[in-house]
Structure formats: structure tokens, C-alpha cells
Amino acid sequence: MDEMEEELKCPVCGSFYREPIILPCSHNICLACARNILVQTPDAESPQSSRASGSGVSDYDYLDLDKMSLYSEADSGYGSYGGFVSAPTTPCQKSPNGVRVFPPTVPQPPAQQQHLLPQPGSLPPIPRNSCITCPQCHRSLILDDRGLRGFPKNRVLEGVVDRYQQSKAAALKCQLCEKSPKEATVMCEQCDVFYCDPCRLRCHPPRGPLAKHRLVPPAQGRISRRASPRKISTCTEHELENLSMYCVQCKMPVCYQCLEEGKHGTHEVKALGAMWKLHKGQLSQALNGLSDRATEAKEFLVQLRNMVQHIQENGVEFEACLVAQCDALIDALNRRKAQLLARVNKEHEHKLKVVRDQISHCTVKLRQTTGLMEYCLEVIKENDPSGFLQISDALIRRVHMTESQWGKGTLTPRMTSDFDLTLDSGPLLQTIHQLDFVQMKVPAAPMLQLEECCTQNNSATLSWKQPPLSTIAVDGYILELDDGNGGPFREVYVGTETICTVDGLHFHSTYKSRVKAFNASGVGQYSKTLIMQTSEIAWFTFDTASAHPDIIFSNDNLTVTCNSYDDRVVMGNSAFSRGVHYWEMTVDRYDNHPDPAFGIARADVLKDVMLGKDDKAWAMYVDNNRSWFMHNNSHTNRTDGGIAKGATIGVLLDFTRGIVIFLVNDEQQGPVAFEGLEGAYYPAISLNRNVQVTLHTGLPIPDFYTPGEADPTGSVC
């Protein structure tokens, strides 16, 4: 509640609001203070159309501050109109907020007219063509014949001030003590009685029907007991009419006479109660966001206070290290020691000053935010719809504006608590006078950016960055991965980039990755280890980069043919070295009984001969009647059964057993084709212009096949 006090004080007198009125700019001011800062303007300068009323901002004629010289940029105060009104005869006054106030000069009436002066407690008449300037935003306006009565009273603010002052009153006494009442500790809302602790235990035990009664602190009970009843608001233009509707265009409550006779007749109006509830909801919703910012600010202040302690601890530790090194040097180094200590202390004080300044700034802003929040919550408790709606728009804007002030970067420390200085004690004695700090340490551990790290098929992409507060230079990074089988880490990338894609990993494998930074001082710590899982099933296409130039691709590189009568080789774009994999190819076109070959190959296989002619490929070639296995131009295992258009050829590669099996139309073609396979192999096919095939990947292992046990010493590609 103490933090809300600033919201409840007049910007002119610095005291709690008394009879506050609402200016068209949505700011508030005491009625008496408004009279004190009135300035009378010449008739010639008063626009005939200028009228002040409580109907909205548009009813006021704001004066040109530059032209009328109402506002002095030199002192940010108030003065008379330059060139129009002579200087006031009364001395200049200043409010507690530093606002210059010139009370209006009222001519003294003759002695025989003294009895006509206003009696004490009544308001004296306001001079014609009076002007008032808002003490907060410095917008000026000329009053009409109604004067200050044209401004609506802020009954909500007045009620909040009354409750706040009541809560600060003397302590309440117990109502049941027979002798010398003790200070009350609780109030029962149902019984409407204040109790001290002994009387509460004796007269209001927490059992039976009394167990359901709500006990509140005495101050809260005082506020709820003295809360003013809901008042019926009347129109400022038609004092006998109650406010019953809300003008959406003018954003103000109006009466029926305003709708029938006034300027609001053609405006959109809504029920007062509905708009009251709507604006209360909007203010509550806006407060939720501001409350989150206030919570973050409190946590940020705790962080800053902890940084002060860390800076002090680090400063002491750094200073002790410096002293130890300097004492170990010769006398010439001792003369230099004082200079180095001064530099450390200067850095120490600079860091403390920056953090303390930020703490002070954030504390003030948080206090203002909390005060605004508490004030808004008290405003929401008011039961006066029209009064609430008069100030709700301004409060909502203030809440949003205050929330935006806690934007990105506000809750970020301006200073790190680390001392990034290292004393180099290695130079020779003759260079003692050149001894200085070097701002170089080994880099901090990089931070993996998890949102950018991912795996696709058998490739892994990793991204990292240096900690945001680190100022240590980095020359490069070292990325390490294990073998996907729990083995040791190995370097896969060294360079300056902060993102890297590693291809050729094992499918269906779990890899651990980490990264570290290095500079001229050495290698820093590793980042946290990231565990990544490659795809369980292989999805791949034919590789356009490694294929023979005569190969023709289509269907997103899943369909291939050839423009040559000679056999040409094309491989897949993924290599396998671990696990069990199966893929198929369908024959889309088969003319003149060619003999295409299907199988696996090393990356450097010959591309201009049939697959299997060299020692880099293991294949099955097949025509319309029979098939053969071929490796290094050796033909084995002739098997009856050929292919035709629409046929399906399957390849099953099992690294757990080191074998490859071929299938034709879902039936195994011959025995196990090849055994003892180790290393990395690519899917491959050779064909000529008489054949066209389409690749199908991501297929499950055929039902008839049972994979063997995995090799715990699986190879690494």
C-alpha cells in the first residue's frame, strides 16, 4: 500500500487529493490547486468557440504553448502570458513537486462591498477567460462560463484516498475486552466485530458454525466496513439527470437528456453497467501482464543484488591473486604493483557503480509499477460505474505503457560480475616496466542452441553460440561426436562457424555431441552434451551429383533411366554402415530384354560399366529369364526367374550379419548373395536406355527375415 501513495498525491500541492477533478488529458488535480494555477487571459485572445465542459477532450480548446508562452522550457513551471498580462503581484510559490504556482490576482473590492465577498467554505467566482495548464503534461485550455464546475469529479480516486488514509489510522482495539482493550488482531466479516487473540479464542472458536466465518486483518476490515456505498452519479451538464448510458465515441457516461438534446444524440451508446464490467475486465487483463513484469523485476533485482556480492567476492579473489604474483617478482615489479592494483580497484568500483545504478533505477521503476498496480486494484473495487469509466481508459493506457517500459533489455544486467583480466608473469625482468594486464582467458563453454539442432535421416545439424555476457575473444570451435555406439568422442569439425551439419552417420543410432571454443590462450570447457537420435528407417533418393552424365532423373530424383545403350551407374544419396536396411525398385519400363544390375557399391565405384564389374560393387544382374550375382566381374549363383515391366526388386542389407540378400517380386532370389560386408555402402543400380526404374525407401524389413544380433564393435563411417 505504501508504494501506491504516489498515485494518491496531487502533483501541485504534493498532498493527498482533496476533491479531485479530472482534466481532459485524464490527469487529476485538487479542486483548490486548480484554482491556484488558473491564469486569466485577455478577451482579445479568447476564442469565442472555446468552451470547457466535462463532455470530453474535444470540448476544450488547447492553447498553443509556444504562442501563448504558458510553459517555460527553462524551469518546466507555470507563468503568466508573455505580453498579455503583467507579472503577478503575489510572490511565486512552489509545490512540493517543484511546480511554480502563481495564485490569481483578484482585485480588492471597496470597503462597502466587503459583505458581498464569498463566505469561508464557498468558492470565489472565477474570472472570465481563465486558463488552466495541466501540471503533468502541460496541456492548456480555456474555461467556459461554468469554470471548474465543468470538470467531472473523480469520485473513485477520492474513495481510494479515503480508504488509504483510514488504513493508516491508529490501531483498532478489541471490542470485547472488558478492561483496557487490547489491540485487535483480526476482524470477523460476518460478525462485524474486532477481536484480540485471547477474545478470539474465547468468543470466536474455529469450530461449528463459526468455522465458516472469514477472519481478515483489522486494517482490511476497517476498509470494508467504511467502504462508501455506491453513489448515484449525475450529469455535469444536466445536474438533475442521472448518468445511465455510455457514449462509445466520446468515451464518457451520459444521461438521457444528453442523448435527446445534446451532441451525443447521433453517437453510439451502450448500457452503463455493461461498459463498466467490460472496462473492469480490460483493466484486470492489462494488470495481469503488468503483474508478470513486476514479478520479473523483483527476480531481476535479486539477481542484481547477488551480482554485487559476486563482484565483491571476485574482486577480492582477483586482488589476492594479483598481490601474490606481484610479491613473487623483483623490486622493480613491486613498483609496478601499485599501478596494477589501482587498475583492478578502478574496474571493481566501475562494475559496482554500474550494477548499483541499475539496481537504483530498477527499484524506482518497480516501486512506480507496484504503486500503479495497487492503485488500479483499488479502483477496480469501486462500485461507481460512471466514476470508474471516467478514468478506466487512462488507467488502461498507463498500465500498457508501464508494461512496455519493462520491455526487452530492461531486465538484462548491464555488467558482468567476472573480471576478464589475467596477469602474465612470464616476461623477462628487463620488460618489467611494460607489464600490463592482458584481457585474454580461455573461452567460456559454448551454449548449444537446442531450437536449431536437429537430425534428418542420417545427418545431424548442430548450432551453438557463446554465452551472452562473455567478452573473451574466440578464434574457433571444435565439434566432437562419438561413434553412435557409446565409443570415444572424435573431432568432426574445426573452424569459425557456429553451425555444422554432419552427414554419413549411422541410421537408428544415438549420438552424443559437444563443442568447445579455443583462442590463443588455450581451449575452453566443453558445452553440455547433446544426445541426438538418427532416423530409424532410411529415406533417400538417387544422387544427381555422383551419377553418370547419361543418367536421366525425374519424379524428385526417385525415377531414373538412361540415354545410352551402354550400362551406366547411379547411386543413392545416403550411405549405410550399421543396422538392417531394406529398399525396393519397381521396373516402370523394360524393352528388348536388357539386364540391369541392382546392389550396393563403394563411393568410388566405376560409373560407366555394369554394376559389379569392379571390386567396388556387389550386385545382382537379371534379365527376363534368370539372374546372377556379380562382384569384381565374377559371376555366381545363376538362378531361374527374371523380370518384366512392373516387377519389384528388393535389396536387404544386414550389417549385424554382414550380408546382402536380393528379392524379386517379394520372393528371395537365390541364396545369400554376399557375406563379410564391412564399411560404408551406397545403394546402387546400373541400367541403359531400355530400362526405367523407380526407387521406394523407408520400407520395413520383410516379415520372413529375422535380423541377427548387433555387432557391438560396429564400424564408423
From TrEMBL:
<feature type="domain" description="B30.2/SPRY">
    <location>
        <begin position="519"/>
        <end position="704"/>
    </location>
</feature>
<dbReference type="InterPro" id="IPR003961">
    <property type="entry name" value="FN3_dom"/>
</dbReference>
<dbReference type="Pfam" id="PF00622">
    <property type="entry name" value="SPRY"/>
</dbReference>
<dbReference type="InterPro" id="IPR036116">
    <property type="entry name" value="FN3_sf"/>
</dbReference>
<dbReference type="InterPro" id="IPR017903">
    <property type="entry name" value="COS_domain"/>
</dbReference>
<keyword id="KW-0832">Ubl conjugation</keyword>
<dbReference type="InterPro" id="IPR049582">
    <property type="entry name" value="TRIM9_Bbox1"/>
</dbReference>
<keyword id="KW-0863">Zinc-finger</keyword>
<dbReference type="Pfam" id="PF00643">
    <property type="entry name" value="zf-B_box"/>
</dbReference>
<dbReference type="InterPro" id="IPR017907">
    <property type="entry name" value="Znf_RING_CS"/>
</dbReference>
<dbReference type="GO" id="GO:0061630">
    <property type="term" value="F:ubiquitin protein ligase activity"/>
</dbReference>
<dbReference type="InterPro" id="IPR013083">
    <property type="entry name" value="Znf_RING/FYVE/PHD"/>
</dbReference>
<dbReference type="InterPro" id="IPR003877">
    <property type="entry name" value="SPRY_dom"/>
</dbReference>
<dbReference type="GO" id="GO:0030425">
    <property type="term" value="C:dendrite"/>
</dbReference>
<dbReference type="Pfam" id="PF22586">
    <property type="entry name" value="ANCHR-like_BBOX"/>
</dbReference>
<keyword id="KW-0770">Synapse</keyword>
<keyword id="KW-0479">Metal-binding</keyword>
<feature type="domain" description="COS">
    <location>
        <begin position="380"/>
        <end position="438"/>
    </location>
</feature>
<dbReference type="InterPro" id="IPR050617">
    <property type="entry name" value="E3_ligase_FN3/SPRY"/>
</dbReference>
<feature type="domain" description="B box-type">
    <location>
        <begin position="230"/>
        <end position="272"/>
    </location>
</feature>
<dbReference type="GO" id="GO:0008270">
    <property type="term" value="F:zinc ion binding"/>
</dbReference>
<keyword id="KW-0862">Zinc</keyword>
<dbReference type="InterPro" id="IPR043136">
    <property type="entry name" value="B30.2/SPRY_sf"/>
</dbReference>
<keyword id="KW-0597">Phosphoprotein</keyword>
<dbReference type="Pfam" id="PF00041">
    <property type="entry name" value="fn3"/>
</dbReference>
<keyword id="KW-0833">Ubl conjugation pathway</keyword>
<keyword id="KW-0677">Repeat</keyword>
<dbReference type="InterPro" id="IPR001841">
    <property type="entry name" value="Znf_RING"/>
</dbReference>
<keyword id="KW-0175">Coiled coil</keyword>
<comment type="subunit">
    <text>Interacts with SNAP25.</text>
</comment>
<keyword id="KW-0963">Cytoplasm</keyword>
<dbReference type="InterPro" id="IPR013783">
    <property type="entry name" value="Ig-like_fold"/>
</dbReference>
<keyword id="KW-0808">Transferase</keyword>
<feature type="domain" description="B box-type">
    <location>
        <begin position="169"/>
        <end position="218"/>
    </location>
</feature>
<dbReference type="InterPro" id="IPR013320">
    <property type="entry name" value="ConA-like_dom_sf"/>
</dbReference>
<keyword id="KW-0966">Cell projection</keyword>
<dbReference type="GO" id="GO:0005856">
    <property type="term" value="C:cytoskeleton"/>
</dbReference>
<dbReference type="GO" id="GO:0008021">
    <property type="term" value="C:synaptic vesicle"/>
</dbReference>
<dbReference type="InterPro" id="IPR001870">
    <property type="entry name" value="B30.2/SPRY"/>
</dbReference>
<dbReference type="InterPro" id="IPR003649">
    <property type="entry name" value="Bbox_C"/>
</dbReference>
<keyword id="KW-0206">Cytoskeleton</keyword>
<protein>
    <recommendedName>
        <fullName>E3 ubiquitin-protein ligase TRIM9</fullName>
        <ecNumber>2.3.2.27</ecNumber>
    </recommendedName>
</protein>
